[in-house]
Write a structure and sequence with these properties.
With about 325 residues, the chain is mainly alpha-helical. The protein has one domain: Rhopdopsin 7-helix transmembrane proteins, CATH 1.20.1070. The protein is built from eleven helices and no strands.
Length: about 325
Amino acid sequence: METLEGTELCFPQLLNTSCRKPMRPQFEAMLIYILLSSISLLTVTLNLLVIISISHFRQLQTPTNLLLLSLAVSDFFVGLLMFFQIMLIDGCWFLGDIMCVVYQCVSYIITSASVGTMVLISVDRYVAICDPLHYSTKVTDKKVVVCVCLCWICSGIFQSLVLKDTIKQPGRYNSCFGECNNFVTYIAGIADAIFSFIVPVTVIVVLYMRVFVVAVSQARAMRSHIAAVTLQFSVKVTAKKSEMKAAKTLGVVVLVFLICFCPYYCVTLTGQDNLLNASSAASVICLFYFNSCLNPVIYAFFYPWFRKSINFILTLKIFQPNSCEANML
């Protein structure tokens, strides 16, 4: 009987203080392992391709793409952090209290920076569509770099304040050896949900709706103006495609972000995280992290240059002399 209990413990040698492993069907455990591992590998691979593409090819180093680079960097590390989440599937943390705090802090900071970068991207698209004549003066490489740096710095400071109790005393809120818990007060949790979800979502939705309205109106105005002169049929088709592409892209951006983030922050806001069973918690976490896998698909795969740069990378043409000067557009 003692041997059986030992096999259910995270640290069998610590019979009285070790955490117990959660009882989970083998099929369910394997399914979660495969799902998280696949998402993690795909997230790391896709975002690494974006990072290499924008960093290597000079033609791609535009203000908008620098924002995509920041987003790809944050999402790349989210993919790496998912390996630690896979470790926690068995309910045991073997890396100690200090590493637990580091993992929690880095996870919060990177996720916050990712959301902040998405807001910056929405602002960039808003200026580009709604004020195109002044875009080149309002949005420059230097301004984008400063905004990205401020985004990461503010994310670090804010999340350090949210997790200050956990940082001060690592392992303080663990009830047994093998746990990796982070304590966030209710007020800090609400503040995190407001500034990391509610405010960004509001800004993104408002700006993208404005971008959508302006893009559609511009397409219709162009169609009406040129159709009165010549090429009526072709212009109508082009304008219609432009309207549909704007609607589809912006709808996917907002919808995917909300679908992936809403469950996690709804649980945080309502304080119902204790009511979730292991399967439900794993599903919420998978969906939350899956957004980082979809970001390069949404923001990069819509661009033809990304497909072209992937071809250069996979065929190892980037190692050729002056490959950084290649035409990607």
